[in-house]
Design a protein that fits this description.
Elements lengths: L10 E5 H5 L10 H15 L12 E6 L12 E5 L4 H10 L6 E4 L3 H9 L3 E3 L19
Parallel strand pairs: 1-2, 1-4, 2-3, 4-5
């Protein structure tokens, strides 16, 4: 698939602060590093294993606060919220122009807002788990 196909892909918007904060793994010591690990995990997984839409997704990771400043990578666009990450997530869903959209968050208020805007929701546990610290992916053969 190339860049021209992106409008055909379902949109996956990830509430970075909420997803990172859902696992007590020390993320508060390095919020930016935790957001980078989430971004890399999303790039490797391509989205939730049992999502309501067939992949591949256009993946957007929304970051805010101390997690700002991380770069996008192939397959994951990082959007920095100038204020509220929730407001940016709702805006992204509204601008999807009717394309199927899925938001990953456990935030009840945000879930209501994006559902009103036409998106479906799933929780952080729908994403593949974070490998343990020091985990190394075996080299491909």
């Amino acid at each position: 698939m190339n860049a021209d196909d992106l409008p055909l892909r379902p949109l996956l918007v990830v509430d970075g602060a909420n997803v990172v904060g859902s696992v007590p793994d020390g993320w508060w010591r390095d919020r930016r590093g935790a957001a980078e690990r989430l971004r890399d995990r999303l790039a490797a997984a391509g989205g939730p294993a049992d999502g309501p839409y067939p992949g591949p997704y256009e993946i957007v990771l929304v970051v805010e606060g101390l997690a700002r400043g991380i770069a996008s990578v192939p397959d994951v666009r990082v959007e920095e919220a100038p204020g509220s990450g929730d407001d940016l997530i709702v805006e992204l869903v509204r601008n999807a122009n009717g394309r199927p959209s899925l938001v990953v968050t456990a935030d009840r208020e945000l879930r209501l807002r994006v559902q009103e805007a036409g998106a479906r929701c799933t929780g952080p546990r729908s994403l593949p788990p974070t490998p343990p610290q020091g985990f190394q992916t075996p080299p491909e053969v």
